[in-house]
Amino acid sequence: MQKSNIYEVSRPKLEEVEGIRRNPHDFSGADRININTGQNTSGATSGTGWNFTNGVLTITNDGTYIIEGTNMPTTNQVVVQSGVTAYILLSGVNINTSATPDTCAFDMFGATVDLYLEGNNNLTSGDSRAGLEVRDGSTLNITSMAGDGSPNGTLNASGGFLAAGIGGWGFDLYSLRNGRSGTITIYGGTITAIGDQGGAGIGGGDTGYYGGIGSQDGGGTITINGGIITAIGGGSGGAGIGSGYYADYPNNYPFNPNIISDDGTVITINGGTITAIGGSVVNESGAGIGGGGRSSSGTITINTRANINATAGTSGTPPAEAIGHGAYSNVSDVTYVSTPLTSTVYEDKYNPLSEIIEFYNANGVFTVRDPQTITIYQGDGESTSVTLYGDDTMLDVSKKINDAIAFSLEQSVYVNNTNQFCTISDGTENTSESVYKKVPVYSDTVYNDDGTIKEPSVLIGYKTYATLLVRSAIPGADGELHFSGDEDVLQALGLNTIQQSRESEFTVTVYDAHNGNMINSPQQVSGSVIYGAITDNIDVKFNPLANINVSWNENTKSYNFSQISDPYTTIVHIANNETVLQVGANEQEDLTIRLGNMSASALGLDGILVISRETAARAITRLDAAITKVSKQRALLGAYQNRLEHTVTNLTTASTNTTAAESRIRDADMSKEMLNFTRLQILMQSGTSMLAQANQLPQTVIGLIRG
């Protein structure tokens, strides 16, 4: 089994309150149910753990479900049965049952639901029912599909008459309902919750002085860790976040307007951007955050990092508080903290880079003031890049690097989980995630004037330093990842190798494809190159994941590399590229020239990197080997050249001698011919001279006679 490469980005600043993060949920393979039609993608109206009957989609078993819509209104409802634990992705759902009293758009009484938001979603219920009903005994967690803290994914929930937007239902005179909310935790998304006539925006319903039998009817347990939240209480005293109107029936019956309820609501706000507005009619005002009309605040803890705008209703004596009790009450229990010291803390990974001190250099200049591009080099020579912006969060950085490795470098083709190439460690012990570093936090020691200890330091919690983990799904040097970019930005990311790569080991046997004969007996090969297995002059490079299966192990938080049982086979076609030159007059007087492949890939230089001291040092060996190969090839070329030059010289001499012999045989002897020509010319001239003299003698005799 081969371990994957893991790189650490040291983050001594990724802080947040323990419990405000959840691991992302995998919805791949979940049944996709269209709420408008009640059918899944196959057209069925029922499936594993769900059924759709008479306009109601009922989740009957634990599981993962995708409920999607067309953003067009429907009166079909969603019900999660009591005792069920469900992971539900809500995408483009628009349910409106307001025209029918006592009908709920999304009811999860007694269930536990992790709700993920994608796109725009609207839930509107009929009279006395909450838009998203979370009654006492139910647990709801809400976040964006894009991640905790992200504002992506919206939910608008409106309760009917007397009910909360998200939380408890309202009373009627026949069932004497308990309007107390269950446990609601919000991690992310953009959420607007509106109560009606005394119902809280988020929290309890309006039980009036009828109330529920034997139980306080307050806001339950409400925790907000992130997201953009708007909560508006209904008139007649619904709190924006907290209790509905007059939350304590059993302790005040028959109705006595002078008795103020203490409803036991617990509200904790750790982060996010919150707008909370209490409802108001004459003398019945609710707090922005806290008590409803005639109700105390419950217990409220607010972290000062949260961005809160709270407004109370305007009627009542004493008036309701923005954060605290409702009208007619004067009981408030509100605590403000800068950091909850009893919890493990991390820096909020949703803060922009501009709020993280590591991204400021020694001169105090923000290193991502201008967009910064980081290039990611893969060991096989492939590369890609990501661009960071000042308003990016560490979660954004993680996703950008993850997607670059998964899709640009195409490592996603090897694995079935494409979200683990770059993650933010969750600190799981005995796994790659355990690179978290826990540091105990102690309170200050208090001394008396005489130097003795008055109050010793005590352990009040832990600070945990998180890391950004970068993994490769390709084993060995081919899968190693290297980063290049602005020095200050890389220093801020603090890239360190925390697990070295290791080459895969293969057993390779080579056969002749024509006759099946074994050319090379089985041999062990480390890495993805076979050297000299076929001939000394041929190396074969193959896929480093040949015969290897890669899978994500959630327990160990790492990629597992395992052998596939069936052998991996391939056929290598070797084409003869020798050049044969005929250099003589006879058969087999020839010269064979063999030219090796001198390309960068053949020399092993296509993936060479010199972006760090380590990669540059490793490149020296590869460069030396490449130089040796080139030198050998040049020596061979020189030998070929010398032999060809010698052959050319010999052929030139032979050609000269042959021409001379032919000339001697076929051509005239110019000296002899010139001698003969001269002789004949002299004879001819002598004859002419003698003839001239012979002609002169008769002329002389005639002259004498005449004379």
Anisotropy-based shape:
elongated
β-strand amount:
25-35%
The largest sheet, given as strand count, sense and whether it forms a barrel, is: 11 strands, mixed
Helical residue percent band:
10-25%
Q: Output the strand order for the largest sheet.
A: 3-2-7-9-12-15-18-21-24-27-30
Task: Count the E strands.
Answer: 47
Label this structure with key terms.
707 residues, alpha/beta, eleven-stranded mixed beta sheet, 4 helices, 47 strands, 16% helix, 30% strand, elongated, disordered N terminus
Protein model, in words:
The chain is elongated and about 190 Å long. It contains 4 helices and 47 strands. The chain has an 11-stranded mixed beta sheet, with no helix packed on it. The protein has an 11-stranded mixed beta sheet with strand order 4-5-6-8-11-14-17-20-23-26-29, with no helix packed on it. The longest helix is centred in the C-terminal third of the chain and has 54 residues, at 613-666. Helices cover 16% and strands 30% of the residues. It is an alpha/beta fold and 707 residues long.
Describe the SSE topology.
Layout: E1 5-11, E2 31-34, E3 39-40, E4 46-47, E5 50-53, E6 56-59, E7 63-68, E8 77-80, E9 85-91, E10 94-96, E11 106-107, E12 112-118, E13 120-124, E14 132-133, E15 139-144, E16 154-158, E17 166-167, E18 183-186, E19 190-194, E20 202-203, E21 221-224, E22 228-232, E23 241-242, E24 266-269, E25 273-277, E26 289-290, E27 299-303, E28 307-311, E29 323-324, E30 333-337, E31 372-378, E32 383-388, H1 394-408, E33 422-424, E34 437-442, E35 446-447, E36 453-455, E37 459-472, E38 481-484, H2 487-493, E39 495-499, E40 505-511, E41 518-526, E42 529-531, E43 539-541, E44 548-553, E45 558-563, E46 579-582, E47 590-593, H3 613-666, H4 670-706
Parallel strand pairs: 2-7, 6-8, 7-9, 8-11, 9-12, 10-13, 11-14, 12-15, 13-16, 14-17, 15-18, 16-19, 17-20, 18-21, 19-22, 20-23, 21-24, 22-25, 23-26, 24-27, 25-28, 26-29, 27-30
Antiparallel strand pairs: 1-37, 1-39, 2-3, 4-5, 5-6, 31-32, 31-38, 33-37, 34-37, 35-36, 40-41, 42-43, 44-45, 46-47
